Amino acid sequence: MRVEIHADRCIGSGVCVLLAPEVFDQRDDDGVVVLLDEHPDARHHESAHDAATRCPALVIEIHDEG
Amino acid sequence: MTAVSEHQAGALPPLPLPGEQKCPFGPPPEYEDLRAGQPVIRVSCPTGVDAWLVSRYADVRQVLGDPELFSNRAGVAAHILLGFGGGTDVPVSEGEFPRMDGAEHLRFRRHMAPEVSNIKRINQLRPLVQGIVDRQLDALAATTQPVDLYADFARPVTTAVIAELLDVPEADQPLFKRAAESLSAGGSSATDVAAALQPLFEYLYMTVVTRRAAPGEDVISRMIVRSDQTDQPFTDMELVTMAAALLIAGYDTTASLISHGVLALLEHPQELERLREDPSLAGTATEELVRYLGVGGGLLREVTQDTEIAGQPVKAGDYVVVAVQSANRDGALYADGDRLDVGRTSGAHLGFGHGPHQCVGQQLARLELTTVLATLPRRIPSLRLAVPFDEIRFKVNSSVLGPVAVPVAWDEIVPALESGA
């Protein structure tokens, strides 16, 4: 799995950090997403997918690589 | 549907609204047929706005997720409320970010985010909220039953949280209460709302001026200090508007969600029992109640260019109401969407909305409801309604739906866990 973010659209909702704190963080000054792990471990795939689906601003794109 | 029966001038069917006994937790029964056969239809709304009503999950998600095609400019509740601004076409006032789109709106969201939606910050607030909930339950133990779960528990809790965050004294609460009530009531005219908001805005303006001179650690001070460090500092009026939004939303919306949510659990005793036995379900229970109850009146958008929704052509300038509650019960999201299940773990419900305007206070609301749901069933295992369910009255003609009052009683309130437990 490869995770890509489009932070220019990010509203800092915190939804991704709530769901997948191992994969995402937020900047302190504006709440915007920080990608911690571009290739998360398999045990975080489900939560990363969940974050992509539930991100209100559709910032997260997941590329499944086999 | 008394809320809409007064508005039958046009030939269009009225917007179905929840809030009465026959659908106390929404959505109105009409939506099942609408989703099946008429997923996009013209309706007439209580304020006289005619709109396309969108009821399926996929279509609601499409509209909310595409702010370039579906603008917020008209105001999200202008189909239900005449009050704020006085209509769908009045100019956006200074700092009125809920009606802004694109980069203009993003600037406000990113300024509030560190205070209300940074998860590290929210986690730091957990002990504060737990303490407030426990103290309010201690206070209930010392009062005469029955008590109103809304006025005597939910609102004191949410008020204390927001008062602590913004550092506004308890003595000033009547000002906030009047503004919040006037803003959410469908009967308020623009003049009523202005009369209720003006003293609040004057109060917050003085607060901004005072705290700019001597900033503290509260949310308003921190927003002022961060603003002055940016390339495009916020005006005093913009800061006042952000503070007012947090205050008003924090005051009533979350309190209504708590009392509506606990009432729903009292009517689903097996689900309440699951929570009592396993408080670690409080997180999923919170999501489930927001899905089940959220945004009963729907959200308004304005079409920016000719397009289609589910094959139905819509024109630039048309209004669209997305029926969030209906979408959240759509079989496309959950086969058993009408069932309340506090253990649900997956799925993107739309109870806080979707898209860039999704509820700005959602993480704070989650924290408060989760704390209540992990605490209340454990500390008051015998909690019950003090009146028959059919005597509970529900708000109609309001942007914040839920029970007017929830009279409750109990046998015993057990002590709080030691802090840190």
TrEMBL record, chain A:
InterPro entries the record matches: 3Fe4S_ferredoxin, 4Fe4S_Fe-S-bd, Fe-S_cluster_ET
Organism whose genome encodes this protein: Dactylosporangium siamense
UniProt keyword Transit peptide, yes or no: no
Cofactor(s) needed by this chain: [3Fe-4S] cluster
Domain of life (superkingdom): Bacteria
Domain (4Fe-4S ferredoxin-type) ranges: 1-29
Gene3D superfamilies assigned to the protein according to its UniProt record, in alphabetical order: 3.30.70.20
UniProt protein name: Ferredoxin
Lineage: Bacteria, Bacillati, Actinomycetota, Actinomycetes, Micromonosporales
Protein purpose: Ferredoxins are iron-sulfur proteins that transfer electrons in a wide variety of metabolic reactions.
Coiled coil feature spans: none
A Gene Ontology molecular function term of the record: electron transfer activity
TrEMBL record, chain B:
Keyword Oxidoreductase appears in the UniProt entry: yes
UniProt KW Membrane keyword: no
InterPro entries linked to this entry: Cyt_P450, Cyt_P450_B, Cyt_P450_CS, Cyt_P450_sf
SUPFAM superfamilies with a match to the protein in the record: Cytochrome P450
GO terms under biological process: antibiotic biosynthetic process
Keywords from the UniProt entry: Heme, Iron, Metal-binding, Monooxygenase, Oxidoreductase
Family matches, as PROSITE patterns: CYTOCHROME_P450 (PS00086)
Location of the region described as Disordered in the Swiss-Prot/TrEMBL record: 1-28
Pfam families the UniProt entry points to: p450 (PF00067)
Taxonomy, superkingdom: Bacteria
MF term (GO), any: iron ion binding
Family per record: Belongs to the cytochrome P450 family.
Name under which the protein is recorded: Cytochrome P450
